[in-house]
Design a protein that fits this description.
The structure is a homodimer. Chain A is α+β, with helices and mostly antiparallel strands and about 450 residues long. The first copy, chain A, is built from 17 helices and 18 strands. The longest helix of chain A has 20 residues.
Chain lengths: ~450, ~450
């Protein structure tokens, strides 16, 4: 342990000489980099560095590798499962100064960005090209962070997740080499899919420094609506019907009774406090009208209330603001509470069952946990409102979360649809994948034999 | 070498005891399993086995692993880059008797099949469900083979490739363990993406025995058309315009002048012998009409001739039959010739340049090579017609193919969009990926330390 300590100190001293003010050991800076937006305990790194180029990242990793010092990549810290905690100390690589949009091709509908570029910044930049990047996990995360956690969010039902929308990556390996995982061709059958290996690897296999993304044309028409339902089954049957009809819905989001109550309180709205779908349609004017009509028909058959429409940009933004503020609205339900955000994903045929049993669990508990879901994909979230300093509450969240995860696995689902494993879901990986985890472990060992890349996340060696 | 020989003999003897008639050492059977549909030399395996369950495959691989005997998975042999050649002898696992459709879920729009199920068989089976599996590489390949080569084809521009449409796999590892790469949830952020690691791995990391696929609703309306253009640039500008407008075209296929001539001769048609697009639109009646109208407008702006439409199923089938017969039509251009089918993929902005330079090359050669392309993705094929026993012709194809590959790489493209590496593109992998090949090699070593899984393909150890 003392040797490890000495090695880290040496690493920091060497890097300080190289980076000067772009290395910080200030306690406040280190603490901010040792925590995410969820409940996980702070584990501050020993130093935070702010590189500006892939070559600088490679140099930093080489110094860390030489001394066996842990490396923790960091975007803006909006992850939710303890991904950025420096469990064994080490050097946090903050990529926020690598925020350059390297190249846009309107003809090829793709873009290359440095890993620190944020989602909203990218779409601002693209505005005049008529293109946009649809993946929207809620937070204004970095593209690098979104890639590393295989993020998705509200638009995934139509546009896919980061898995489908990353075309190529530049990565610094655990020994400080720089590799490109693919070229810009839309498809390739040339060798193992290194791109997908790094998407969702949570910094445990290398540092992602540049990302080439697929873009989409801004739709000619967009229309959004919300609609409440007499019960959860009716809402989910509407979702299943919509997907089965092949309607290319852009967003189809579910909020439960409690979450609607929270949104009403937080944003001074008066929506019915009932299971509610937030919908958005993209396409030509005619196509959007047709999609909307069909979904309205399906919803009506399931006993839905009236649709409230928003077609003007500002009205759509207001409607989606309520959805995007869901987590903050939930937090406001209980003054001083922290949130434990969890997510699972199940086959859509099992979604109603999974949600209803989960709501039953929560109704029998003394804690509150509003529910929101990207239900077109069978993915939903709970936000547990709790006091992490209260052992009884902590134990209760752990119990409810574990029941949720095991229920999802029993329904052929996954322990996390989009938040990732980090440390929070580490214990469920073997339950989900069984023997396949041994292959993941072999990959980790092959890519990072000294276990310096974000150690303690995803895979325990 | 003699020790390797003795080990293979022992393996075959042990397996013969276990499998009886489901192991063949008949020369004709072995030869048929040692070649694909392209020009590559036959390398017959020492034995061919016909397992019926994943457990039997695992047992076979365990016996092979014990004796260091190569294992070559085999579907129906429609691959094109030497994937099934038993370069070092060994046991070919023919999966054609594993042709059971295990499970269909209409609600979840997914299906699980054994690896030996063929594409057309699957769609026959699905017909009454209102669902279909769109990936169409032309050949009636097995789903296992399509997964192993990361196949795509005519529908990929809308529905993606096998990369996007495989949800989960059952795989037998190189030491004979059985793993499942994922559950049935539409998305997951739980650990490394083992599914995508095996998609496109060409049998070099393990044997795929079951595949869970994403399905789609059969569109309410489908309409197909063909349209000829005054030149290659006009055709490709139409493709780029179509994609940029966000038109969800289901198929957009390019055939060059020579290929159109071949199709006319082969199928007794009288299409103009000019660059021609074959198009298909899927959606609601209204959406299909709108898509068709918009594309017609774009094509007209680019100087296209009249569209010839096909909406009735039999008319559409006739139109696509001409496209699907393209390779046979090409072969018929030169009596007794063999085909060397190659494919590359480039960013669509570079497609015209790549195709025109390639056509120029061919026009200066003494060989013929008609061109067809899945051009919505920037992917196109050449079929060289040649006599493999003529050294001068062989050298000329090698020269033209290498120029094509290097041109594609120079344009930020890939050496193969969908055929895979096999042995045919082995030499180009480092040219394409550089340092990243070392990571592929580490993956191969980690997954298959004894190098028994389809040795000599993708990666040279």
């Amino acid at each position: 342990m003392d040797a490890a300590r000495a090695n880290i100190d040496t690493t920091v001293a060497v890097l300080k000489q190289q980076l000067g003010e772009r290395l910080s050991t200030v306690a406040a800076v280190r603490e901010r980099h040792g925590q995410d937006e969820s409940y996980h305990a702070v584990h501050a790194p020993d130093a935070v560095v702010f590189p500006r180029t892939t070559e600088e990242v490679a140099e930093i990793v080489r110094v860390c590798a030489e001394h066996g010092t842990p490396v923790i990549p960091f975007g803006v810290g909006t992850s939710l499962e303890g991904h950025v905690a420096a469990l064994h100390g080490g050097v946090c690589i903050d990529l926020s100064e690598m925020n350059e949009i390297v190249r846009v091709s309107a003809e090829d509908m793709d873009v290359t960005v440095q890993a620190g570029v944020r989602r909203k910044q990218l779409n601002e930049h693209l505005r005049d090209t008529g293109l946009f990047f649809p993946i929207d996990p809620g937070a204004d995360a970095t593209i690098g962070g979104m890639t590393a956690t295989r993020a998705s969010g509200t638009n995934a039902v139509r546009y896919g997740t980061m898995r489908e929308n990353v075309l190529a990556l530049t990565v610094v390996t655990s020994d400080g080499r720089i590799i490109n995982t693919a070229r810009r061709a839309r498809k390739s059958a040339a060798g193992y899919d290194l791109t997908r290996m790094f998407v969702g690897s949570e910094g445990t296999l290398g540092v992602i420094t540049e990302v080439t993304l697929r873009l989409y044309g801004i739709p000619e028409a967009m229309s959004a609506a919300i609609c409440s339902f007499p019960g959860m089954n009716a809402a989910i049957d509407t979702v299943i019907g919509t997907i089965q009809m092949g309607i290319p819905v852009a967003r189809i989001e579910l909020l439960d009774e409690l979450q609607m109550k929270a949104c009403n309180l937080y944003s001074d709205l008066d929506y019915p406090e009932a299971p509610t779908l937030f919908l958005e349609f993209h396409g030509s004017e005619a196509s959007v009208a047709e999609q909307a009509e069909t979904v309205q028909m399906i919803a009506t058959e399931n006993g839905a209330g009236d649709f409230q429409w928003a077609t003007r940009t500002e009205d759509r933004n207001r409607l989606w603001q309520a959805r995007h503020d869901a987590a903050y609205a939930a937090l406001a339900l209980r003054t001083g509470a922290k949130m434990w955000a969890t997510d699972v994903c199940v086959p859509i045929s099992r979604l109603a069952e999974c949600i209803l049993e989960t709501q039953q669990d929560i109704s029998e508990s003394f804690l509150m946990a509003p529910l929101v879901g990207h239900v077109g994909d069978g993915n939903f979230h709970l936000v547990f409102l709790f006091d992490p300093d209260d052992e009884r509450e902590m134990a209760e969240v752990e119990r409810l979360n574990e029941r949720l995860v095991l229920r999802s696995l029993a329904l052929d689902g996954t322990c996390t649809g989009e938040h990732g494993v980090g440390t929070g879901k580490l214990n469920y990986l073997i339950a989900e994948h069984g023997e396949a985890v041994s292959l993941m472990r072999e990959i980790k060992k092959a890519m990072d034999p000294a276990n310096i890349m974000n150690p303690g996340k995803i895979i325990q060696l």
